[in-house]
Structures are given as C-alpha cells and as structure tokens.
Design a protein that fits this description.
187 residues, mainly beta, 0% helix, binds calcium ion
C-alpha cells in the first residue's frame, strides 16, 4: 500500500508522482490511500498518478482501489486530470473504484478490463507480472511520461509498439519471423 497522511497544519503534500507501478493482491485495503486532516486547501498541487496497474486491491463494494480521504470535511474535489491512464480491475476479491472525498471518480482514459499477466495466481510469490502479448487492457494504453523517464523495470526502453504500456513492464514485441516450413511436399 502507498499511504500518505497529512495530519497537521504544517503538512502539505505536493508534487507527488506515482507512475507505472503494478500493484496486486491487497484485497480489503486500497492500493493507494491518501489522507488529509489539516486545513490546507492546496494539498494536492502537482499530483500525478498515471500508467499504474492496480489489480485485486480494495474490497468488493466496500473499499475502493484508490482512496483519497478528507477527515475534516469534503472541502475539495479531485482535479480532473491528475489521475488518469490507470488500469484498475478488482480481480477475484478487489474493487475497481477510485473514491475522492466520498465521491466516485472516473478516469477520462482509464482501463477497467483485467490485465493479462505472464503468470498470476492470487497471493503467489512466483507471479510474473509482465504482460502477455494477448493483453489489451494495459498494453499501449498508457500516456507518454518521457518527460520523467523512458525505460521500464527491466531497463527496456519505452515505448515499444504503438504506445506506453501501463504497469511496471513494457511488452517487447516478438519481431522474430516465423521459421520456414520444413519437410513440405508439394504435389
Ligand atoms: Ca507498448
């Protein structure tokens, strides 16, 4: 879980960037939880949360996948473009919602289908969370963050294919041509 908590009048949390993470298997808790209970109105200046995959986090209808909580009162609305291009799917037990001070928040360019990983079993330590070529949720659906970085967790340069992938790994296209047929008899 990524949790940030601003809890006194000196605490302002600005310019937080959460980019291209893959977060899985935290059912019953949000993958990201941001809490404010101070008096600053400008606490979210410069925030960007983009290109992340959040899968099987949150809890059914009860706990969102990403939660922004204002414990004083709902004094703000989430800015319209700071949280976008994320692939959020509830998976077996989780939730796909983003909640901002009690209101559900919809991304302009979000993806809600389940990402297809190379291997995945719930709670397994052996999962390979790279994308399968058949994936259509996260592959090529991200936004360019080249102003900040241009490679993935493995060092592969981004983008590959037609666009940035969501999540920690950029799918490397298989460009090897098929082998010629052998043993072929022409009649
Ligand atoms: Ca790509």
């Amino acid at each position: 879980m990524i949790q940030l908590h601003a809890h006194d009048d000196q605490a302002v949390i600005n310019n937080v960037k959460i980019f291209n993470n893959t977060i899985t298997d935290m059912p019953r808790f949000p993958a990201m939880r941001i809490i404010i209970d101070n008096s600053h109105a400008d606490w979210m200046s410069g925030w960007e949360i983009k290109n992340n995959i959040v899968y099987n986090c949150g809890y059914l209808t009860l706990e969102p996948a990403i939660s922004f909580e204002d414990q004083v009162s709902p004094r703000y609305t989430c800015p319209p473009d700071f949280l976008d291009y994320n692939n959020i799917n509830g998976g077996p037990e989780g939730n796909s919602m983003i909640r901002c001070a009690g209101t559900n928040y919809l991304q302009a360019h979000g993806q809600s289908a389940a990402p297809l990983f190379v291997s995945y079993n719930e709670f397994s330590q052996d999962n390979d969370l790279r994308l399968l070529a058949e994936d259509s949720a996260a592959k090529d659906n991200g936004v360019s963050l080249a102003a900040y970085f241009t490679s993935d967790k493995d060092g592969t340069s981004r983008p590959q294919g037609s666009g940035w992938d969501m999540g920690a790994y950029e799918l490397i296209k298989d460009v090897t041509p098929p082998s010629p047929p052998i043993g072929l008899t022409v009649y």
